[in-house]
Amino acid sequence: MNLLEIGTERIEINLGKVLRKDYTTNHLQILEDQLILHYSEQKLCFFSTDGDNVLLPVLVEWIKLMQHALNIPDDKICFVSVSPSLPQWCWIPFPLEAFEQVGTLLESTSINRDLDAAKFVGVLAGSRWSVARMRMCYEVDKAFPGDAFITHKMAKSLLSRLQQWYQQETTWYNNRKFNNDLLLSEFDIIHFTDAVREYPKIWNQFQIEIICETDEYQNQWFTEKTAKCLSTGKPFVLLSGQHSLKNLRQMGFTTFAKSIDESYDDCVLPAQRIRAIIKSLQTLYLAPNKTEIIAEMQEKARKNIDIYHNYVQNKIQLRTHTQSYNRGSALLRHLRRAKLTVSDYNP
After folding, report:
1. Phi, psi of 341 (to 5 degrees)
2. What three-state secondary structure class fits 48?
3. Residue 342 scores a pLDDT above 50
4. Quick check: 185 pLDDT over 60?
5. Gap between the Cα atoms of 283 and 183, Å rounded
6. Separation between Cα atoms, residue 239 and residue 214, nearest integer Å
7. pLDDT: which is higher, 92 or 109
8. Using CA atoms, how far apart are residues 17 and 1, in angstroms rounded to an integer?
9. Does one domain contain both 147 and 296?
C-alpha cells in the first residue's frame, strides 16, 4: 500500500510509512498538504498492520490538529491496527499475523528438550538493533557471565557513533563473541520465518528466554518472538510494553508469577523494566532451590503449547465466517486478506 490513497468516499493512510520503530515519524507534512488539497468529508482510514503504535503522542496530536483545522468529526476517523485507538475513533482490530503463523512454521515435537548443557538464560536479539535490546543483552551478560546464550545484531558502525553515551557497552560489544548463527538478509534483518524455522536448533541452549519483543512500548502487539516460547513450552520473561504479561494472561496463556517476581510488568519504561527483569532473574539464580523452581516453570510453560494452538485455531474459525468485501479499496483488501469482520465499519 502506498503512503495514501485518495478516493471520493475514503482517504486511506498507511501508517507503516509514517511511524518508525524508534518512535519518530515520516511524511506528516506530505499527508497534511494532501489532506488540505483533497479532503472533502471523506472517511480517514489509518492502517497500522505491522504493530506500529497508533497512540504515539506526536501522531495523536497531529490527527487532532487536522481534525480541528479541517472540521473532521470523530466518526470520520477509522483505524485498522493491532493496538486500540482513542475511544472517540473507530477501531477495527487487525490480527497478530506473525504470532499466529508460528503454529504452521514450527513443529514443537521435533525439538530436542535435553537441557543438561543449557545455559541459565537466553536473549535472541540478532535482528533489529535498539537501545533497549542492547541494554538487555549487556545487563544479562554482566549479571550471568558465562551462563547466558546471546545473539545480537552486528552493528559496530552504529555503536561507534554512540560510544559517547555507551562506553562500557561498546567495549563489551567489541569483545563479546555472540551466538549468532543466522545470516542477515539483503535488508540487514533476519526474516521472522527463518528465525522460527531455526528456533528448534537452539531451543535447548538455554533454560529461560528473555523475549525482546519488536516494540518495547507496545503491550497489545505480540509477534513470533513471543509465540515461539508459547508454542514450544519455553519458560520466559518478557521485555515489551507495560502490562504485556497481563494481556497475555487475558488471552489465556500461563506466565510464571508463582515462580519468579513478575512485577517488572508494571514498569512504565523499558529501562526500568530491564532492571526489574535482571533483579527477578538474579533472585532465582541465587535461590537454593533454583533447580526445582526452573522445573516448575518448565511444567507451567508446557501448558502453553495446547493453549497457543487452541488460540490460533479459534481465531481461524472465527475468520472463516466473515464475508468478502469490495476489491477496489485498500482498506477492504487488507480486511479481506486478514478475514476480518467490518460490521463496525460503514464506508
Report:
1. -85, 145
2. strand
3. no
4. no
5. 35
6. 9
7. 92
8. 9
9. yes
Residue 236 to residues 40, 144, 228, 258, 299: CA-CA distances in angstroms? Answer: 50, 16, 10, 13, 12
Q: How far is CA 72 from the centre of its chain?
A: 32
Average of pLDDT values for 99-117? Answer: 89
Q: How many angstroms separate the Cα of 330 from the Cα of each of 297, 342, 347? A: 44, 14, 12
- Closest among 56, 194, 214, 54 to 129, alpha carbons compared: 214
Last residue of a domain, one of 60, 94, 128: 94
In this predicted model, what pLDDT tens digit does every residue of 258-288 receive, in sequence order?
999 999 999 999 999 999 999 999 999 999 9
Match 528456533 to its residue by C-alpha cell. Answer: 199
Cell numbers found for residue 323: 464475508
Length in residues, the chain: 347
Residue 117: C-alpha distances to residues 148, 208, 271 (Å): 12, 13, 31
Q: What is the CATH number of the domain that holds 21?
A: 3.30.370
Of the candidates 258, 269, 175, 263, the one whose C-alpha atom is nearest the C-alpha of residue 219 is 269
- Let me know whether 128 and 50 are in one domain: no
H-type helices in 127-223, by residue range? 131-143, 156-161, 167-175, 192-202
One-letter amino acid for residue 51 of the chain: G
Residue type, 183: L
